[in-house]
Design goal:
The complex is a heterodimer of chains A (238) and B (434). Helices cover 45% and strands 17% of the residues of chain A. With 238 residues, chain A is an alpha/beta fold. In chain A, helix 1 crosses helix 6. In chain B, a hairpin with a 6-residue loop joins strand 13 and strand 14. Classes of the chains: A alpha/beta (238), B alpha+beta (434).
């Protein structure tokens, strides 16, 4: 899996940045995609200095991602792999009409367009990592629209996995708490895993052609319990 | 941005401190409100300079990007959270001119303490190689150098992070190989050791002496090293592998101290009588042998360790060291690890530690006897016009600090004039912030 181009979408997130480090350390080229051009340039410069690999940036508003999909992949000189880390988040309590449109546009419409374009590329091998969330396992009162958008992509990807030929590897990563900007200082976070370790787990999973992993792994057991909990008990959980 | 209440500790694990922490992931997110704050890098100092108890702490670990590197001049521009280890990835032909005892320290922390290495006689201290830095003061980014905002620049070198949040800096790296040829020489008499360090030792790129203070007559092993053609591969692949290399050894948290007198005596005996052949090794293995063992400070148990480090007059060094040893014996403290280096250049910062003379660093188990011994040694060093290293100290008082840092008033005045709204436990203890 060397000498390819990893396209990292949502590249200013710390997990994506750490994943980019690993991909670069394996001598892959990189295309970093995100909204904040200044920060993308900083990350790109850092990666080029550390790992001596080409690293381009592509700054865009993910609301308009579909218009840029072709440019992302066709400018790459080598076969592409795709790491999807972008996502919008709004709690149910804060939803407004525009927030609903935005979360659906970013998390579903743009993501599906991206995946669709990527899997339509003509190349000999496909590697796709999608960062989902354990929230997608069962809707919670707090953030069920966000969870629903993640679940929508998971279900779409499951279909693509079903029809995928042997040269197409799609890994869904259900993330528990990772030590990111979103969980820092958040009440109720009992353990937040290191982003570097999470990125390593994603890299190992795609190399081993895993269809789905939980990270940290113990979330598999927690979510198995939660998804099988009878509804009358689930309703009582705050 | 959301804050988080954290119980922070430092390298020696002797103290802990609760603060409201913010961790920006880019420079725009650096949170500065009206309350005085403190930027904290890797938290590897032995002193309380990385604490702001019940105040605001800005964690800079994620502001760790390399921004540019000129292979002609060796000048690297980077964010302050970059570590010395990161700099070694830049080019196999360039190294940081000054390397502290751990490569995990951040460059912001290194500038704030104007750290030194084993080569002061060749390369001065860290601040000497910094061309400029950017400070965030009251929400404004201020570019400082020897030509621009020079008062702030000289206050920032060794300024304990009290001038502002150091966001970026430019450092001139040195063209040298990553390998050294090391000579180790056991020396039974302290006077002879000091003599050799003052003469022959100055001809080498690096020199450091390890001391056995538990032996009936203090003795030491002098290590002398010169750069030599590298024996390690220098391809990009090697650099990237180095970036992901994990420590082989790690010490778990142990509920008691493994550092006992008899253990240290055995260790010292073996170290003194090791084979004295010349050997070639990596610069990292020579300069930072303890970096090989992750969390080696956990060997001291839950109470941690406490360190004394001071610089004193070269001519009277034998007398001063003998008196310091008497003070240690008088207080029945246990000196576990001791290191002697020689400075020939003073630091450029207003509060820089380095000045010509011998510098002695001694680790102790953190207990009351050690504290009493260090207090007595601090008083003695003050009397003899020496200087205690603020990156290591927990026990100095305001009068002693003022007496040993001639430019303390100018430093505090610079903080006032530039409305530097920073604070640390060390600054409060020593009355640095007016």
């Amino acid at each position: 899996m060397s000498q390819r181009t990893w396209v990292i979408v949502g590249a200013t997130s710390i997990i994506a940045e750490q994943f980019a480090h690993i991909a670069a350390a394996h001598q892959n080229d990189l295309v970093l995609v995100g909204r904040d051009k200044a920060q993308l340039l900083i990350i790109s410069q850092d990666i080029q200095l550390r790992f001596k690999v080409p690293c381009r940036v592509h700054s865009l508003d993910l609301m308009n991602l579909s218009a840029h999909c072709s440019a992302l992949f066709f400018n790459a000189h080598k076969a592409c792999d795709l790491f999807i880390a972008h996502s919008d988040f709004t709690e149910n309590a804060d939803l407004t009409s525009s927030a609903i449109n935005q979360i659906i546009d970013v998390n579903i419409r743009a993501t599906v367009q991206l995946i669709h374009h990527y899997l339509a590329l003509k190349q000999s091998q496909y590697n796709l990592v999608y960062l989902s969330s354990v929230a997608a396992c069962r809707g919670r009162a707090k953030n069920s629209l966000y969870a629903g958008t993640k679940a929508a992509i998971e279900v779409y990807l499951q279909g693509r996995q079903q029809s995928a030929p042997n040269n197409c590897h799609i890994t869904i990563v259900r993330l528990g708490f990772i030590d990111t900007r979103q969980t820092y200082g958040l009440a109720g976070v009992f353990y937040a895993a290191k982003p570097k370790d999470c990125a390593q787990a994603c890299w190992r999973a795609i190399k081993k052609h895993k269809r789905q992993i939980y990270y940290p792994g113990f979330w598999f057991f927690i979510m198995s319990l939660i998804t099988h909990l009878p509804f009358f008990l689930y309703k009582r959980i705050k | 941005m959301r804050g988080k209440k954290k119980l922070l500790s430092h390298f020696s694990r002797a103290l802990s401190s609760q603060s409201l922490c913010f961790r920006p992931e880019n420079e725009h997110e650096i949170h500065m409100d009206k309350a005085p704050a403190l930027a904290r890098g890797a938290g590897l100092s032995y002193s309380d300079s990385c604490f702001n108890t019940n105040g605001t702490v800005i964690e800079t670990q994620r502001l760790n990007h390399l921004l540019s590197f000129d292979a002609q001049t060796g000048i690297v521009v980077c964010q302050a959270g970059v570590t010395f280890k990161d700099l070694l990835l830049l080019s196999p032909e360039f190294i940081p001119p000054v390397l502290p005892g751990t490569l995990h320290a951040t460059l912001g922390g290194a500038l704030a303490h104007d750290v030194h290495g084993k080569n002061n006689h060749r390369e001065h201290s860290f601040g000497h190689h910094v061309l400029w830095c950017t400070l965030l003061i009251q929400g404004k980014h201020i570019h400082c150098s020897r030509e621009e905002q020079a008062d702030l620049f000289y206050a920032t070198i060794g300024g304990l992070g009290l001038t502002g949040v150091i966001t970026r800096l430019a450092l001139r790296l040195k063209k040298a190989s990553l390998s050294v040829i090391v000579k180790k020489r056991p020396i039974a008499a302290l006077s002879s050791l000091l003599e050799q360090m003052s003469t022959e030792g100055l001809d080498y790129d690096y020199q450091v002496a390890w001391l056995d203070l538990l032996h009936k007559t203090p003795r030491g092993v002098l290590s002398l090293a010169n750069h030599c053609p590298t024996t390690t591969p220098s391809s990009p692949e090697f650099c990237t592998k180095a970036a992901f290399k994990k420590n082989k050894y790690s010490i778990p948290k142990i509920p008691f101290s493994l550092v006992q007198k008899w253990v240290m005596k055995c260790f010292n005996h073996c170290f003194f009588h090791q084979k004295n052949t010349e050997q070639t090794c990596s610069l990292e293995a020579f300069n930072n042998p303890l970096d090989k063992i992750k969390h080696w400070n956990a060997l001291y148990g839950p109470k941690g360790l406490i360190q004394f480090q001071a610089v004193f007059n070269q001519k009277e060094s034998l007398l001063i060291i003998e008196h310091l040893l008497e003070l240690i014996q008088h207080h029945k403290a246990l000196p576990t690890l001791a290191v002697l280096k020689l400075f020939t250049h003073k630091g450029e910062g207003l509060l820089s530690f380095c000045k010509p003379g011998f510098t002695l660093a001694i680790d102790f188990k953190n207990n009351e006897r050690s504290k009493q011994a260090i207090k007595a040694m601090n008083a003695y060093i003050t009397e003899t016009q020496g200087r205690v290293y603020l990156a290591k100290d927990l026990l100095l008082n305001a009068q002693q600090y003022q007496k040993m840092n001639e430019q303390h008033q100018r430093f505090s005045q610079t903080l006032l004039e530039n409305q530097c709204n920073m604070k640390s436990d060390l600054a409060t203890r020593l009355g640095v912030v007016l």
